[in-house]
Amino acid sequence: MYVVIKDLSFKYKNAKEYQIKNFGLEIEKGEIVALLGPSGSGKSTILRLISGLEVPNGGEILVNNNILYNKDKFIEPEKRGIGMVFQDYALFPHMTVEKNVLFGVGNVDKNEKQRILDEVLELVDMKEYKKRYPHELSGGQQQRIAIARALAPKPSLLLLDEPFSNLDADLRKKIRNEIKDILKKTHSTSIFVTHDIEDAKDVADRIINL
Ligand SMILES: Nc1ncnc2c1ncn2[C@@H]1O[C@H](COP(=O)(O)OP(=O)(O)OP(=O)(O)O)[C@@H](O)[C@H]1O
Fold this sequence. Notes:
Layout: E1 3-10, E2 20-27, E3 32-36, H1 43-51, E4 58-63, E5 66-70, E6 73-74, E7 82-85, H2 97-102, H3 110-123, H4 139-151, E8 157-161, H5 169-185, E9 190-194, H6 197-203, E10 206-209
Parallel strand pairs: 3-9, 3-10, 7-8, 8-9
Antiparallel strand pairs: 1-2, 1-4, 4-5, 5-6
Bound molecules: adenosine-5'-triphosphate.
The site of adenosine-5'-triphosphate has 13 residues, from helix 1.
Keywords: ATP-binding, Cell membrane, Ion transport, Iron, Iron transport, Membrane, Nucleotide-binding, Transport
EC number: 7.6.2.9
Domain ABC transporter: 3-210
């Protein structure tokens, strides 16, 4: 299995109860899994644990046979090679599309950067928008750029937290189909969090109810 999460448990420091108890999940390479559950069920917390933004109280997390967390080991978030897309796009407002997309791309030469930029912008059909700023784009376009930015460093795993919740109903349907195409084209192994069963059905290969 490409992603293995075993017996994960977690409690926020100031909380009385455990938010995550003995959570387990296995994902095949290239599979898109949706975590579906109501508000407060712990969806975002699970993504924070996988990305390393919170430290679990117990369990194991492995991606592609690399241990990201167990009782002896904690890999820092920036070393995990995990891409994230959030509901609020979180593009840097003072940076052009080009700068936003290349932000997380490491030490590669100029030509390689241009190649990556063209490749991911082509993928999300936004090649003409390199020099635009986020406020000059529609909500759906900003979300496509957020996905291009997450994909540019070639992450081993992509986490998407309610990526459609800011979009109106028509756009939402369109974007989720586009995203599914993009994830499948890039063979991206992905975990996608939502409280909306239609989102989950449209995008995911498999739905996990929390
Ligand atoms: N920083 C924090 N400190 C203490 N408790 C927290 C913190 N963040 C979240 N929680 C609690 O942990 C539980 C799970 O929250 P989480 O955000 O993971 O839920 P969710 O399923 O993503 O909800 P939503 O769909 O509303 O975003 C909730 O009871 C929440 O109140």
